[in-house]
Amino acid sequence: IVQYASAGDYESVVSCLREDLAGALTADQLEEAWSGTYERVGAVESVKSVSLSGTADDSTGEEYAVAQVICRHEKGSVLYTLSFDAELNLVGLYLK
Predict the structure, then answer these.
(1) Burial letters for 50-71: b for 16+ Cβ neighbours within 10 Å, e otherwise?
(2) Most exposed of 5, 8, 88, 89 (fewest Cβ within 10 Å)?
C-alpha cells in the first residue's frame, strides 16, 4: 500500500479496498487528498518502523489489524495508518 501510494499508483491502492468500501473512495479522491503531502515530503526513502495492533469496532464487534508504518521521505517523515479486516482486505487508510 505504501509503495503504491508513494509511487502515485492510487488505482492500485483503491483496488485493495474491501469490496463494500470500494465505491466509497476513488483514485482521484485519494490523489487529491494525498498528493500535497507527497509534494511536500518528496519520494519515500525507507521504512523507519512498523507497529501492529488489533482493535474491534464497538458497534459491530468486527476485529481489525492496524499497521502504523512510519516512512522516511526525502524531506520528512510520514505516518501511514492502515487497517485490515480478518481476510486482510484494506478497510481504512490514513496519512499524516
Answers:
(1) eeeeeeeeeeeeeebeeeebeb
(2) 88
Summary mean pLDDT of the chain: 94
Rounded-to-integer distance, Cα 43 and Cα 32, Å:
17
Q: Is the pLDDT of residue 46 over 90?
A: yes
Using the predicted structure, report yes or no on whether residue 4 has a pLDDT greater than 90. yes
Question: What distance in Å separates the CA atoms of residue 50 and residue 72, rounded to the nearest whole number?
Answer: 12
Q: What is the pLDDT of residue 6?
A: 86
What the block records as the C-alpha cell of 26 is 476513488
